[in-house]
Specification:
CATH architecture of the largest domain: Orthogonal Bundle
CATH superfamily of the largest domain: Intergrase catalytic core
CATH class of the largest domain: Mainly Alpha
Largest sheet: 3 strands, antiparallel
CATH topology of the largest domain: hpI Integrase, Chain A
Number of domains: 2
Helix content: 40-55%
Distance between the termini: 67 Å
Number of helices: 14
Shape: elongated
Strand order of the largest sheet: 1-2-3
Length: 311
């Protein structure tokens, strides 16, 4: 591979490229479409899948088609008025409530953290190093993911050499790539040291016991306590969280997703009076609409409900 190809591949986000490849394969191999595509073909593709695919999925397919045509120097058929009208009609005739991640509340975070602390201590006492490592890893992942509002792909790509943690002071995490960093300049995120549920303490405890000095922060642990060399795969992130929530006794554990920590933090911050700009700067959102999807409005009837009176 020559240097040009190397840099071109580095410029493309792996997850996005994988998603685009899958979308194009569906359009060509499964549906029988041809590339470059005509406006009529794209419109028919949308219409034929309107009842089986979510609008968000159809939009992702359009993005993949648009990307292919631009990359190969062809006119983009997805921008045609006909295609836009078909998509608008699909929204009207196939309305769907937008699914949102169930946010983790601070009380639930406290419950899970307490379970992890106890489980790690019992594993250490019993000489079960593999279990101790998993519990310490999961605690660091949980608290850092919540207090930093990290996406799953961000926290699983975090590297030890890009983290600077000082007990009692805080920590910085550098990400070479993140979703909002379109120019791939990298960004530094800061996390606080806290009296309780401290992400700094959790991270340092994991690093100390694991003995890791460089490479991915969060890795697999086999049954003998050996650590994987690669970082956790993004596809293992949600199952890991759900299994952890279930073990800690969180109700409806299967309904939580990779965005639950991020949305939970946004909800917590909003309830404590963070203004939108402060929250966007902290989490890394550039788009107001994106930020608003993660924020739950304060309950205007808080304290007036029957359960509050009974308490």
């Amino acid at each position: 591979m020559n240097s040009v190809d190397t840099y071109l591949r580095a410029a493309a986000r792996e997850n996005t490229e994988r998603s685009y490849r899958s979308a194009l394969q569906h359009f060509e191999s499964e549906w029988g479409g041809l590339l470059p595509a005509s406006t009529d073909a794209v419109a028919r593709y949308l219409a034929e899948h309107a009842g089986t695919m979510a609008v968000s999925t159809l939009q992702q397919r359009l993005a993949a088609l648009a990307h292919w045509h631009k990359e190969h120097g062809f006119p983009d058929p997805t921008k045609a008025q006909m295609v836009r009208k078909v998509l608008k009609g699909i929204r009207a005739l196939h309305p769907a409530r937008q699914k949102q991640a169930r946010p983790i509340q601070l009380e639930q975070l406290t419950q899970i953290d307490a379970w992890l602390v106890n489980a790690a201590a019992l594993a250490a006492q019993g000489g079960r190093r593999a279990d101790q490592l998993r519990h310490l890893r999961d605690r660091a992942l949980l608290l850092l993911g919540f207090w930093r509002g990290f996406r799953g792909d961000e926290i699983t790509r975090l590297r030890i050499e890009h983290v600077d943690a000082v007990r009692g002071a805080g920590m910085t995490c550098f990400l070479a790539q993140s979703k909002g960093d379109r120019e791939a300049r990298g960004r530094t995120f800061r996390a606080p040291a806290l009296r309780t549920l401290c992400p700094v303490e959790a991270y340092l405890a994991w690093i100390e016991v694991s003995g890791l000095a460089d490479g991915p922060v969060f890795r697999s642990v086999d049954r003998w306590g050996n650590l994987g060399r690669e970082g956790l795969h993004i596809n293992s992130y949600v199952p890991l969280l759900r299994a952890l929530f279930h073990a800690a006794g969180i109700a409806l554990a299967g309904e939580y997703s990779g965005h639950s920590l991020r949305r939970g933090f946004a909800t917590w911050a909003t309830a404590r009076g963070w203004d939108l700009k402060t929250l966007m700067d902290y989490v890394g959102w550039r788009d107001v609409d994106s930020a608003m999807r993660y924020m739950d409005a304060a309950d205007p009837f808080d304290g007036l409900r029957p359960d509050a009176a009974a308490a």
